Amino acid sequence: MKKLFICIISATAAVAIFSACTAQSFVPERDENSALEFWLTDDVSQVDLGGYEFVPGWFGAEEFYNAELYPTVTNEDGEPAAPEICVKYLITAYPDYADGGSFITHIEITDPEVEIYGVNCQSTLDQFDSVFTQKGYTVTATTSTLHVAERDGFSFSLRREGDEGKLQAQAEVTNRDGIVV
To answer: Distance (Å, rounded) from C-alpha 105 to C-alpha 77?
Structure first.
């Protein structure tokens, strides 16, 4: 009886360890050909962001861009503002707001020189669909100007309106405690 009990405990432990190892969540691979400085879920808590400009107006998050690459402009009220063409990053907790931390969870690209998997903000919606479908994402045409690719808590989107384009990448952040952000 004692041997049976030990076998059951050992088998249960083995299943638990195997489940924990295989339960690691999917994270999209970093595009090594991209000019992005940071990638989704990068921990930036120890990164010196001194050369970056932070965009005000966020509660529970911080949005920033590289002011050396994209100099700050002045808006119609005479206040500093992010340039129209740039790459902005959003720092939040991850994977849940209650977990804390400083992780990149959103990237917004309006600079046509910056690509993700060969897609930039000036790509066609058909090009976007093709690339992300091949990578295993479910692509939907939310509107005639916005397509979204989703997979395992991550999404990429491309909005095209005339000559204007915006490419975004996002890691879903859960909110198990109902924290207002």
So the answer is: 30
The pTM score is 0.83
pLDDT of res. 181? 55
> Taken in order 43, 45, 48, 52, is the CA torsion positive or negative?
positive
Q: Which sign does the torsion angle of CA 126, 131, 132, 138 carry?
A: positive
CA distances from 92 to 70, 113, 119, 173 (A): 22, 26, 25, 8
- Dist. CA 29–CA 117, nearest whole Å: 10
Query: How far apart (Å, rounded) are the C-alpha atoms in residues 111 and 167?
Result: 9
Sign of the torsion formed by the C-alpha atoms of 149, 126, 115 and 136: positive
Chain mean position to CA 59? 18
Task: Quote the pLDDT of residue 79.
Answer: 85
